[in-house]
Amino acid sequence: MGTVRKLVVEVIDARNLLPKDGHGTSSPYVVVDFYGQRRKTRTVTRDLSPVWNEMLEFNVGKPSDVLGDMLELDIYHDKFIGPTTRNNFLGRVRLSATQFVKKGEEALIYYPLDKKYWFSWISGEIGLKIYFVEQVVPPPEEVKAEPPAAPEGEKPNIEVEEAAQPLEDPNTLEAEPEKEKFEKEGSSSTVLMDPTPELPVQEDEFNQVKRSVSLGSIPEVKVSNITGPRPISRASSVSSFISDAAASERSGPIERSSFDLVEKMHYLFVRVVKARSLPTVGSPVVKIAVSGSRVVSKPARKTVLFEWDQTFAFGRDGAPDSSSLLEVSVWDPLSAKSFDPTSDVDVAGYVFLGGICFDVSEIPLRDPPDSPLAPQWYRLEGGGAHRGDLMLATWVGTQADESFPEAWKTDTAGNPGSKSKVYQSPKLWYLRSSVIEAQDLSHELTHSKESSYQIKAQLGFQVQKTKSITTTTGSPSWNEDLVFVAAEPFTEHYLLFFLIETRSAKEQTVLAVASIPLTTIERRVDDRKVASRWFTFEDPNDQERRIYKGRVHLRLCFDGGYHVMDEAANVCSDYRPTARQLWKAPIGTVELGIIGCKNLLPMKTMKGKGSTDAYAVAKYGNKWVRTRTISDSLDPKWNEQYTWRVYDPSTVLTIGVFDGWEEFESDGCKEKMRPDFRIGKVRVRISTLTTGKVYRNTFPLLLLSQAGLKKMGEIELAVRFIRSTPTLDFLHVYSQPLLPMMHHVKPLGMVQQDSLRTAAVKIVASHLTRSEPPLRREVVTYMLDADSHSFSMRKVRANWFRIINVIAGVIDIVKWVDDTRAWKNPTATLLVHALLVMLVWFPDLIIPTFAFYVFMIGAWNYRFRSRDTLPHFDPKTSLAESLDRDELDEEFDALPCTRPNELVRARYDKLRVLGARLQTILGDIATQGERVQALVTWRDPRATGIFIGLCFVVAFILYLVPSRMVAMAFGFYYLRHPIFRDRMPSPALNFFRRLPSLSDRML
């Protein structure tokens, strides 16, 4: 049974429509068009705020260039109701299908009505719920087609085939499943090389193979079409399979791939699928030897055949070698030891069953987008295998091959947790619970004057409480908002409300509890009022009997209009709201190439030598990526490339390097619980990247610890930003608010934001640690800067020097004025005299002259803009090079203080809290000043271009328009009535908040 996707549009109501019937009212109806389908609602008679509550259903087809994927909704006045002949158009809404969500995520959204023509008079908004649903379609009745009639005197072809096919041929049993298996992989086809003929099979040899011990009844071996490299002749000796072999690099162009930011790494791929006709009843293994590397596969799965289905990737460093052989052999272990792929093969513990040799120079190159090479049967030689066959495929490719992520690789030593992975952060919501009042509690209250009552709300590990209320009426009232962070899915979570009685400072009693499933809570995307509901309190000690203990009045909703902050605001990688309906189209993509590291310090000591098992993690938006772990290397090379969609240029891409312990955990090491050690981190701000330019830089990995600042090595990255929107649309983003509307309409407090961010970090870390391989908690917290708000005297002094650096510009202006008065430069002093006379006689030129002067400064500084290198962590700005040991111990000391004296501890903790607040204030002041500097310093090339362009336009306009008119218009605009003001910040303020500062370079 198949499914059909449909789009459901629930037309709820409209507000504040224009009167169109000539008597102060309208009779509106709605017409909706989608993919050439038109639906219409009923007409609501004489109502400017009509309510329809109708559901319109549309079929969803394939994307059409003619019809597009836009939904258009028009509201009309029914001119046949009432004596009117006026235009009946009331407004329209146009939405893209990318904004729609699936059923269960929908929310009531009020869209403002747009005009049809430039001079149309339109007002009001319409409330809609739009979502996709999947409907099950019953399968049609199958009609069996009649086979084509055969000519007279001939049997049908199908009967001839059936007669020629034995009933119990094992080839038939495995042919169809094998065909289906390889047709479903990656693409629907495989690449076949030039066929090589095979000698015909003699009848006596067939009978001899048929008596083999491996399968009892062996099918006829058909290897007439060899699709891979031809095996070379060899002597049947066991020693040739246990000797080290090597292969030289094949010359010629390497495969085309999208990995253009990183270096292509050559790999020899060998895919071992299965074997047949082997003279064994055990679980044989396959040994592969090439270029000094040897690997043993896992034991075969015994079905009708012997199956492995493993892929191995051998690194090709291009070094000349004396031999160019790839040796694949099959061995039957006498014991179940040495199954480790990196272990050597003990000849005394294995029985050689046969093998194949290939000339590496004959192995073909695979050129994507070609399909994968088809595996084929090869005849095993030597070892008494008789007519044993091994199915495998071998080719030369790069890390862009789709088989590479899951393959065993020589540089990872077969570590099972070393594969490259992409992770997704959970979808986070703010859950707002408004506790209004409680009733019917008189039989629960003790009526004591010293008792107070409060509500404790709990969601998982998050606990919040209302203020305590003293009452004797049995109806306490709180009217408080409690906000939590919740992650999808909500199926197994409950929001608990406890009624607590407090009789003294240490005596609290839980009187009742209310449990609310998260799946029953409404979702909203704006600040509209959500209907409140009454919930029943039950006995906390006997919830099975559900004894009534009163009721509580709550207003619950998921606020999808907020962006749930899990990163520091100055290094945030995403500002989109939770609700997908509010997302805007992406403005481009950022591509990151993680090339490798150099000169890493050894992180662990194993077997008497230092080693490092490094891997890199990159985070942008809700997408995390992790490279494979390079085992025992101080100069690891990953050469992996990843791509993210960019929705806002004022965001930061974060890359971190860590030392992993997965390999030792799998070996049962005693230190398996040791966390992954952080090596360093790099941040890249998207707005500092020029469109289409590739930045390939080496960044130092700096780590600040209790021992001081240490350089852990270097990482080489390649970054490119590609814009996908028109230039005007891209520049228009700079005038938009940085955060979603709900952050400005109903903002959250600073203390509340900090606690919610802490909860969000814990939820994200818990989610990613359940992945396989896990992204550990210490890695997530380091990437999200979970401890960035901790107190540090070093940060306080660094922010203070940042402020001094900004004020230094003002000091330079005062010094320049003093130098001008002192006639140190007579020419400049004469020019200032002339400028002073001109501005005194023509005061209208003051503002345009200043704007033109700023334009000249910005244009002059264009020569000194950053060209090649990207900004990175600056130890001098962070004051990390000259550290005081006492301050460093204070910075890494946990709260509360560990000093023995209780009084000193209390005062010390209070000082650190005050210092943290002062540190934040100083950082904010420094950020604002650095943003003013960024207006003309080309730190953000687009922002500086916009600013100096506006300065030039303002200067030109003010030269033509009298300043008195401009001042009067500005005054009238500033004092305008509140009904003409927008609740959102002005474009100028939005532009200023998007300017970069040095805060993202702070360690």
Automatic annotation (TrEMBL):
Keywords: Calcium, Membrane, Repeat, Transmembrane, Transmembrane helix. Residues 176-186 have a biased composition (Basic and acidic residues). Pfam families: C2, PRT_C. Its main location: membrane. InterPro entries: C2_dom, C2_domain_sf, C2B_MCTP_PRT_plant, C2D_MCTP_PRT_plant, MCTP_C, QUIRKY-like. The chain crosses the membrane at residues 830-860, 946-975. Residues 163-193 are annotated as: Disordered. It is found in: Membrane. The keyword DNA repair does not apply. Signal peptide: none annotated. Residues 1-110, 250-378, 412-535, 571-699 form the C2 domain. It is a multi-pass membrane protein. Belongs to the MCTP family. This is C2 domain-containing protein. It comes from Datura stramonium.
